[in-house]
Amino acid sequence: MTRRLALFALFVVVAIACTRGAPPSEASPRALVGAGATLPYPLYSKWSAEYQRVEPRVRINYQSIGSGAGIRQISDGVVDFGATDEPTSTPANMVLVPTTIGAVVIAFNLPGVKELALTPELIADIFLGKVARWDHERVRAVNQGRALPSEPITVVHRADGSGTSAALTTFLAKRSAAWRDVVGAGSSPRFPVGVGAKGNEGVTAFVKATPLSVGYVELAYAKQSGLAMAEVQNRAGKLVAPSLGALERAAKSFADPTSEVGPVSLVDSADEGAYPITALSFVVVPLEASDRTKAEALAKFLWWAIHDGQDLASALEYAPLPPALVRRGERALRELRAAGHPLLPGTG
Length: 348
What we know:
Layout: H1 2-21, H2 24-27, E1 30-36, H3 41-54, E2 58-64, H4 67-75, E3 81-84, E4 94-109, E5 117-118, H5 120-128, H6 137-141, E6 154-158, H7 163-175, H8 177-182, E7 195-197, H9 199-209, E8 213-218, H10 219-225, E9 228-229, E10 231-233, E11 239-240, H11 244-252, E12 278-286, E13 288-289, H12 292-306, H13 323-335, E14 337-338, E15 341-342
Parallel strand pairs: 1-2, 1-3, 5-10, 6-7, 6-8, 13-14
Antiparallel strand pairs: 3-12, 4-8, 4-9, 4-12, 10-11, 14-15
Helix pairs in contact: 12-13
């Protein structure tokens, strides 16, 4: 028995020595949990997988639950980071890191019709229920030569708090007095007509399964599902189809001469080649972290995302951040602290 106790004691000593030789911060995997916007979900999923090749000790789990829910969860400390396409609702003790650029497209399901043109005022009146049939004279006026059915329009909208909704309603509120007066802009608008679905995933599935329907979703979801998308008239009066080139035109029109790290919008760019409902997506991170080890891992991942991670955007129908927005992201990440000290090396 004495010999067994001695061997056990020796084992404990060796185990302690091994633990001291490999600090938990270096040897233990770090699990980072985020939640929020559905718009960037395909890209964030790709980033999560690719970053494990760069840093195998970090595991990233992102939950696509909508911008509103993401802001609530990061505010309540349920997750390590939130994500939103509607930055104006972000709490003051949080930092916004721009991550990617997507498009909110008007997707439609019209048997036999693959092309459609819409003005902002027409989109507003369709979602207000004022233009209720596909062959309405106003729809025909901007779609001459297209065989539009004499059938009612089924409107599909988001049922949850959504940055996608915020981008659409911000655009419509700028361009339609009727929309501005009745609905306004925000992430949880009250649509007077239509059916609601949860997430970009839900709206995409509903439109795809429902002939004669129209809804709004992010470009990547529409492309992956094979949905037809309307050209939308921009501020310069040009009808522009959603495309990477049109998103880049909107992004490059943004100039950032300040040192601010707060909200910014790419909606309704004045560039004549820009797609007008271009959405800038953000990750939301607490300014002051309680867990330095985890916060450092998150800051390093986000630094990678706004630099090397941008190379993965175009293949998934997102536009890479232009230099001005990368710089804004760098400034935001340099703001992050734990116990008053910067998280990233070389900042202060």
